[in-house]
């Protein structure tokens, strides 16, 4: 082989390597379970926030985190569940119905929005069912607070990868980068 053939072979090998890298990037990007959006903004490098589904147990969380090599150091386990219930209807009758159904300590945020704690055993789905079963008021929203979640440490530079990968997991309600807010 002469010098020209070596150079031509080298150019062909570099071209094939570049095509291989491009195909690999396309395959990896397309295999992620979410669309990689622009505009994540500033975020803490090496951290993501995970919110688990309602009614997950501590054992399930620990097992999940261990399976990915994550620590549960900054995961919070709330002691009680709270629910925001927005409704249209007679306030006194509806509040009495909810109190009889296991909700306690209501307080108002605005005239038709109330925050409740629920007795143990009432999960998010149960709270929604109880609220919607009342026929003399129209429930416009039931929002559940008190889910398990928090900051999880990941290797710096892999935050978006983990957000995309974990969004498809059935134990995850939401996950996102740990955004930084700037005051202007």
Q: Care to describe what's here?
A:
The protein is α+β, with helices and mostly antiparallel strands and 184 residues long. The chain folds into three domains: 1-31; 32-77 and 148-179, Alpha-Beta Plaits; 82-145. The chain has helices spanning 3-31, 58-68, 91-100, 124-133, 159-166, and strands at residues 43-52, 74-76, 82-89, 103-110, 113-118, 137-145, 149-153, 172-179. The chain has a four-stranded antiparallel sheet with strand order 2-7-1-8, covered by helices on one side. A hairpin with a 2-residue loop joins strand 4 (103-110) and strand 5. The termini are far apart. The model has no long low-confidence stretch (mean pLDDT 78).
Concise description?
This protein is an alpha+beta fold.
| Oligomerization | single chain
**Major sheet attributes:** 4 strands, antiparallel
> Can you tell me the CATH topology of the largest domain?
Alpha-Beta Plaits
| Architecture per CATH nomenclature, i.e. the level-2 architecture of the largest domain | 2-Layer Sandwich
Strand content: 25-35%
Number of helices: 5
Structural class: alpha+beta
N- to C-terminal distance:
66 Å
Give me the Rg, rounded: 25 Å
Mean pLDDT: 78
Give the % helix. 25-40%
Keywords:
four-stranded antiparallel sheet; single chain; 5 helices; 184 residues; Alpha-Beta Plaits; alpha+beta
